[in-house]
Amino acid sequence: MVEFDIVIPARYASTRLPGKPLRDVAGKTLIQRVYECATNSRASQVIVATDDDAIMRVAEDFGATVVMTSKHHDSGTDRLAEVVQRLNVPDDRIIVNLQGDEPLVPAQLIHQVAEGLAGDDRASIATVCKEVRRQRDYTDPSVVKVVMSRDGYALYFSRAPIPWARQHDGLPSRWPPKPRRVYHHIGMYAYRAAYLRRFAALESCELEQVEKLEQLRALWNGEAIRVLKAYCLPGPGVDTIYDLENVIRIFERQQEAEHEQ
Alpha carbon of 211 to those of 38, 47, 159, 207, 216: distances in Å? Predict the structure, then answer.
């Protein structure tokens, strides 16, 4: 059995939904819902990494271990790197990044990324993907696409529709039809602590800045990212108020079902 820890990066200053980790989700804060999701896995330790005193207090109240980090990180991975440095985590320890707005991630998916990295000495990072089936997801910039080599390593991640079908009916300015195989990157990662230390020392590259995708910093610097086809899919995350309302309804239905049993 692979041993790993989970770090949940949680910042207050979300652009689209300020104070997101402290929003109420059917009687509990969003950060508590994510924490409970993490504790349902086989993780040896679950840590909340935040830059906000209010999030720290709430997380400590429900029993979480909290590490306070800088307010100036460009990405969640940078925040995880600070945790590794502060706690002096051994280089070979596997750390899973569970986003602080993902309260419906199955434990099996967490285990898959941890085990995928543990079984691959070449990779610095392991992550997961699913097949894109709808044309609208193919052209949606919020749905991050990934293209892979035949042996399952990432070639590129983009918000643009990739791969692009060069020959298609219609004008060049129109979106092409979705190719047969397109993959949506699911933003869950496993790293070794040694890689997180390297990542923190790397400057953000232009590709990362343009696409706003931190994993492009790793590819730019020659790191191998193993991309696994997800055994199962996470429930919806929370980016907007609409997403929040949707997740609240899911938890309310779960509570009603448990009450009826």
Answer: 28, 28, 7, 6, 8
What pTM was estimated for this model as a whole? 0.92
CB-based contact 184:143 (threshold 8 Å): yes
Give the DSSP H/E element, type plus range, for residue 207.
Answer: helix 206-211
Residue ranges per structural domain of the chain: 4-127+185-207+224-260
pLDDT, tens digit, for every residue of 169-218?
554 556 677 888 999 999 999 999 999 999 988 888 999 999 999 999 99
For 100-117, what is each residue's pLDDT tens digit? Answer: 999 999 999 999 999 999
What is the number of helices (H) and of strands (E) in the chain? 9, 11
Domain 4-127+185-207+224-260, CATH:
3.90.550.10
64, two tokens = 């979480």
Q: How many angstroms separate the Cα of 184 from the Cα of each of 134, 147, 162, 206, 228?
A: 11, 9, 10, 22, 11
> Which SS3 state, helix, strand or coil, does residue 163 take?
coil
